[in-house]
Specification:
By secondary structure, this protein is mostly beta strands. The chain has helices spanning 10-22, 168-178; strands at residues 28-45, 51-69, 74-85, 94-108, 111-119, 129-140, 143-153, 182-191, 194-203, 207-218, 221-232, 242-252, 257-265, 282-283, 288-289, 295-306, 309-320, 324-338, 341-354, 357-372.
Length: 373
């Protein structure tokens, strides 16, 4: 459902010009971002061939969100998303502009309904799009009930190729999710600085996930804890429930911001995660875990402001199963060159081991400019 409309990337320029005059339309708000990222990637795979591969590539993202107020209770939203990525042959023709969101929203007296193509925001998803209905209702000031059903989604892979997946199981899941309906119900409660959420998310014919989380901010300290369990619905033999525990801590000390996280799964695997940005996953820049069996991962990071720059250091370490280990060290520098424009430079070092033998090394340098409006 993601690619409903496809044009050349040149159309994005026309959209950018449109935003200037669009702001003059009564009730119309325009926002978005424009990101250019250039990356150099050196990968060493220490298999029987011991081959090394070096790639340079770019990634351009251009998003525009148009929100039109129709009446006091009704609004319409369209999000236009442009992408241009360089493939392995250094061909820049991989360009398109899509309508990623198109929906109506009705809002009155604690009741909200959104109908159309919209983001699927649950603990197990990463904002992928789906066509459906989301309804929320707040019977009390600090209590929200939510229910959603999506008839289609952009999570699965309709064009999945077995060679692109690590296992037949992952391939079959990608194909099944692409055909599935997605339903979700939630209870969200706020009590002072603390928020509590209970979710049940069902991917028809694939899996069901139940999760509970608590988060809050206490002065300079922010913390969250999540537990999620997924049951398999594919009728596969001997498939046990997978569960995930995830804890995050952030502390703003004034002179620096510190962060830490723990992610763990049991021997039968973790809770379902549609992508690396889901709450039931953990990621840094390149290294991510999305439900691997018997995994323990620890993330430590710090950001220090120095003059007009933010210097950051993050380290993610993961033990997976009995023999596999993976680490990533990420160094970053960012600065605002204008009120709405950020320039950042990053360098990532990834290493994977089986037993005590290093099997994979990756060094990535990137340069990114992000403009928001």
């Amino acid at each position: 459902m993601k690619k409903l409309v496809r044009m050349s990337l040149v159309a994005a320029v026309a959209v950018a010009g449109f935003t200037t005059s669009a702001s003059a339309v009564e009730g119309l708000s325009v926002s978005g971002k424009f990101v250019v990222k250039v990356q150099a990637d050196t990968t060493k795979v220490k298999d029987s061939n011991h081959h090394t591969k070096t790639l340079s590539k770019h990634d351009i993202d251009f998003d525009v969100k148009l929100n039109q107020k129709i009446s006091d209770n009704l609004s319409a939203t369209v999000v236009i998303q442009g992408d241009a990525k360089q493939n392995t042959n250094k061909n820049t023709s991989n360009q398109n502009v899509d309508i990623s969101n198109a929906y109506f929203t009705y809002d009155q007296a604690g009741f909200n309904a959104t109908l159309g193509l919209q983001d699927i925001n649950t603990p197990v998803t990463d904002g992928e799009e789906g066509a459906g209905l989301l309804v929320t209702y707040s019977p009390f000031e600090n209590v929200t009930l939510a229910a959603a059903h999506f008839l289609s989604n952009s999570i699965g892979d309709h064009d999945a190729v077995l060679s692109d997946y690590d296992s037949v199981s992952e391939y079959n899941t990608a194909k099944a999710v692409a055909k599935a309906d997605i339903s979700a119900v939630a209870l969200i409660v706020s009590a002072g600085p603390v928020n509590m959420e209970l979710w049940h998310v069902a991917v028809s014919g694939v899996n069901k996930t139940t999760s509970g989380s608590v988060s809050g901010s206490f002065g300079p300290l922010s913390a969250s804890a999540l537990y999620a369990v997924t049951s398999d619905e594919t009728n596969a033999n001997n498939v046990e429930d997978g569960d995930t525990v995830k804890i995050t801590l952030d502390y703003a000390a004034g002179f620096a911001d510190f962060r830490a996280a723990y992610y763990g799964t049991d021997k039968d695997g973790g809770a379902y995660a549609s992508d690396t940005g889901a709450q039931t996953a953990i990621e840094l820049d390149e290294l991510a875990l999305t439900g691997e069996e018997d995994a323990d991962a620890y993330l430590l990071g710090v950001t220090v402001p120095v003059s007009d720059f933010d210097l950051s250091l993050d380290y993610l370490s993961a033990d997976i199963g009995e023999h596999d280990e993976a680490t990533e060290l990420l160094l970053g520098v960012s600065t605002k060159v204008a009120k709405t424009t950020t320039l950042s430079v990053g360098y990532s070092m990834v290493e994977k081991e089986t037993g005590s033998v290093t099997t994979f090394e990756q060094n990535i340098a990137n340069f990114k400019v992000k403009y928001t409006f």
